[in-house]
Amino acid sequence: MTAPIAASTITGTAASVAGEPMLVLEEVNTYYGQIHALQGVDLSVAEGEIVTLIGANGAGKTTTLKTISGLLHPRHGTVRFEGTDVSRTPAHLLVRRGIGHAPEGRRIFSRMSVLENLMMGAFTRETPTIPPDLERVMTLFPRLRERSHQLGGTLSGGEQQMLAIGRALMSHPRLLLLDEPSLGLSPILVQQIFAIIREINSQGTTVLLVEQNALQALSIAHRAYVLQTGRVVLAGPAKDVMSNETVRKAYLGED
Question: Which residues contact 97 (CB under 8 A, 6 or more apart)?
Fold first, then answer.
């Protein structure tokens, strides 16, 4: 069981380091029925950043991403994207606004080809605008080019993860939400996926990353938040969060 982190150990701030805030959550409270999953979450992501959200299973990380992408709506609090309140905006309209989401578990269409999966990611877009992003995805993930006519369900776990990220990129997002992209992958593939996340960010896409592999996530992020039972208990520059003694013991496996 992860030891609790006292709120008094919070360091740093949620202030942007790369530009004006693109995404802001203020006192967000999200429920599953009567279960109070997110309890007053404050979070911000600046344009151009990689921000990571770490925490134990059940801490509320996936719920946070679902609340941002419109799959869930907060009962109280506000989600703002590029200055607009999107707390009640349906998920498909948030895709059009520029939020892409690669969910936990990949959720690819197993009976559709790689190319068809990618084109599903572009369903909100006009056809003439799609080819440059398709080429971008194929360049980032050469294996998808090789497997373009293969059914998604026959891909390896690593290839399916590449496809899930590629499908999210096909919506041409300004903000990309990634939920556990390294889950179940070999160490070599984990390294590849994190290198690709860095490359995606360097090309101008802002990233909010949920990841169990805290060490890898903190190593590529600009800033970090630690969630614990639905509350943010630590926030600050990733290097400062990584050096926090409690975080090192709880999430980085150090004694």
Answer: 81, 82, 84, 86, 89
Phi and psi of 225, rounded to 5°?
-125, 140
pTM of the model: 0.87
| Residues forming a β-bridge with 113 | 151
Q: What is the pLDDT of residues 45-100, one digit of tens each?
A: 999 999 999 998 889 999 999 999 999 999 999 999 999 999 999 999 999 999 99
Tokens of 223: 């800033």
End-to-end CA distance of the chain: 14
Helix axes 187-202, 131-140, angle to 10 degrees: 140
- Residue 207: helix, strand or coil by DSSP? strand
Q: What are the boundaries of each domain within the chain?
A: 1-98+175-181+199-255, 102-172
- Which value, in Å, is the radius of gyration of the alpha carbons in the chain? 18
**Overall fold of domain 1-98+175-181+199-255:** Rossmann fold (3.40.50)
Q: CB–CB of 67/80 below 8 Å?
A: no
